[in-house]
Amino acid sequence: MWSGPRNISTAMMRAWENRPDCHVVDEPFYAYYLQRTGIDHPGRDDVLRSQPTDWKVVADRLTQEPLPAGVTVCYQKHMTHHLLPEVDRSALDSLRHAFLVRDPAEVLVSYAKVRGEPTLEDLGLPQQVELYERFGGPVVDARDVLEHAEATLRALCAALGVDFSASMLSWPAGRRDTDGVWSPHWYDAVWASTGFTSYHPPTAEVPARLEPLLDRCRPLYEAVAAHRITARI
After folding, report:
1. Does pTM surpass 0.90?
2. Which of 69, 128, 164, 225 can pair with 157 through a Cys bridge, CB separation 3.0 to 4.6 Å?
3. Where are the domains of the chain?
4. What is the distance between the alpha carbons of residues 208 and 108, in angstroms, rounded to a whole number?
5. What is the pLDDT along the chain (233 residues), one digit of tens a residue?
């Protein structure tokens, strides 16, 4: 599942992990991304120690390692901006791909609270378009998931050839062993959750300084969102 930041990507990972037949992987290219870019994120040193920093090693693990006993589905939570240009996309050809999108105005309102001056690449939208054009696959919009979780997840599962499970709609609160070591810095809301929250439009406006960035984001979001699953409610 390819998503940008400030989306419902961790809640979506929770939904899949709550299935008895599913194993999840949390942002496996994160350490590689931090090591190659030199970006300073909260818990950077812990992240670098927790994962391989060679993208080839990561890709081999994602595509070649056997699943745990009793598991038939592996859900990989990926951030699009972690896949830097040097990563050979063909190394991931054997996977089934899906895409999680969110209105960039809502993303920017949220992102501005944690990083004042995001770039287009920080938001992962150009990368998401590129990945969609290469791999294709079902697209779900965060708002659709929040407004109609069951119908949207049923449609997503059908598109992926996976049986829907009602266990995806709720989960126990708390942290998981599968959460990345960065989770104490970012996952408080998800740790407190027991399911998808209701959709509420943001009350804040996109800061004026970010409006030019929003104008650049909009067509990229729309290019992928145009293919989103529209489940019958």
Report:
1. yes
2. 164
3. 2-225
4. 11
5. 999 988 999 999 999 999 999 999 999 999 999 999 999 888 999 999 999 999 999 999 999 999 999 999 999 999 999 999 999 999 999 999 999 999 999 999 887 776 668 899 999 999 999 999 999 999 999 999 999 999 999 999 999 999 999 999 999 999 999 999 999 988 999 999 999 999 988 888 898 999 999 999 999 999 999 999 987 65
